[in-house]
Amino acid sequence: MLCENCQKKPANLFIKAVTEEEIGEVKLCYKCAKDVGLLEGYAPEDFPSTPLLIIGLITFPLEMDLKIHRETLSRRCPNCGLSLDTFVKTNKFGCGECYLVFAEYLDNLFTKLHGATRHVEGDLQALEKEDRAFSSRLARLHERLREAVKGENYEEAARLRDKISSLKNTRKRHRYG
Amino acid sequence: MQTNYYSSIIQGFETWVKESAPKSKYVLSSRIRLARNLTLYPFPHRADRKDLKKVAELTIEAVKRSASFRNPAIFPLERLAALDRQLLREKHLISFQQSQGEESRWVIVAKEDLSSLMINEEDHLRLQNIHYGLQLRASWQRVKTIDMELQSLLDVAYHEKWGFLTVCPTNTGTAMRASIMMFLPGLVLSNKIKKIFRELSNSGFAVRGTYGEGSDAKGYLFQISNQITLGRTEVEILEILEKTGQILITKEEAARRRLVEKSGTDLEAKITKALRNLKEGKKLGLNDSLTALSLVRLGICVKMIPDISLSTIDELLILVQPSHTSKYKFSHKKPSSEVARADLIQQHLMACST
Known about the structure:
The complex is a heterodimer of chains A (177) and B (354). With 177 residues, chain A is mainly alpha-helical. Helices cover 47% and strands 11% of the residues of chain A. A 3-stranded mixed sheet of chain A has the order 2-1-3. In chain A, strand 1 and strand 2 form a beta hairpin. Chain B has 354 residues and is an alpha+beta fold. Helices cover 48% and strands 16% of the residues of chain B. Chain B has 11 helices and 10 strands. In chain B, helix 3 packs across helix 10, helix 7 crosses helix 8 and helix 9 packs antiparallel against helix 11. The chains are: A mainly alpha (177), B alpha+beta (354). Chains A and B meet through helix 4, helix 5 and helix 6 of A and helix 4, strand 6, strand 7 and helix 7 of B.
């Protein structure tokens, strides 16, 4: 596959280009990408020799004046504050929410690492899903209970307490019975 | 006072070595580790003190309420003496990172089988179990039971598409790392090991020499683990690893047979000498001990040494490590680690002889 810019060298960088309206892909050789300033701030060792997607960072459609789309690079996870830029450099997520924030870049990353993009649920997860529903229901009830107690709404609190203990009991019967 | 309290608990821990185990001639141990994180809390490398503390509190609370983690010993690593942290490390209960004893780093150990749960390591939670010999399934059953219960008590970060969410994308999915520690002197001595390991790394396994990569005897131990965590179920990963282990066992078995046929006398002389060193040496260094123990282990496997059991040697492989030896040096008032190690080995061999 040839570089879409010079049409001479093999393309070894797949660059995802992002604008407000669309997401597109462009394939460039290392030299062209560098010449137009696309790799500013990166060292060659940031890029493995295999073709890969670097995150996309340029305005689209691709003309000769490619510019790093700073806004995309500085996109941050609202939960932990990790920027896309830091994620790309360190290869470490900052919290569970980061996965959702950077979701569009993960298929490529996971294909490279695992040869797959999706988790396959084993028997652990099948059971665990049901547990999760249980624990989040329980957490919500506890939350409401705390509020009720804080607001001195004791009737409501008593009702919630009953509900919590009955939920726990059903759970026990279900699991061990 | 506190320090002594934790020391005495650690002192009371047995090792994961049991009297016997399936395939222990070839596989020292099977280990499974699961990584988990709590939703919304920043991962440890981005968390502040308050978050780290909160994650630890929530987890400890959950463990105390759990039925599967009976009899937990709970260690705040920052309050442990450096030597005690090293002891936990040599027993494979905590990682190197965790043994640094930073703030809000904990480990919880189930006293009955030494399952351990590290808190605020690379991920919020790292649960692991080790079994003696080739027993991946037994380890799997145990971590599965604990994990399922912890998940019902804690809000664990999980996504339908990506599975369990971890700090490193190399762990995402099952977040499971399964490994077997293999004893492969036959393949090392017949120069077959390099080629086999190349093939293994090409098919998605990581191979590490346990005490270095050299061709001397202390390098007979290798850890083989899965690298892929996404796109396969836990059981699929375990089955592939176990099958790989079985194939290596067959190859190792053949290599040992050829070795004994071809150069049995030389081998026996080497092994006898190693055993004599262990039994009579006044001072023994770590490397010399590991080399001699590995040779003796081979001697037991090929029936050149009749009166020592594999488990005796396998316990010694842990006990001769630096911190275990230091502890022995202090408690038995020995002048140096080398003297302490020699004494420790000889006492252990004597106590275990029949």
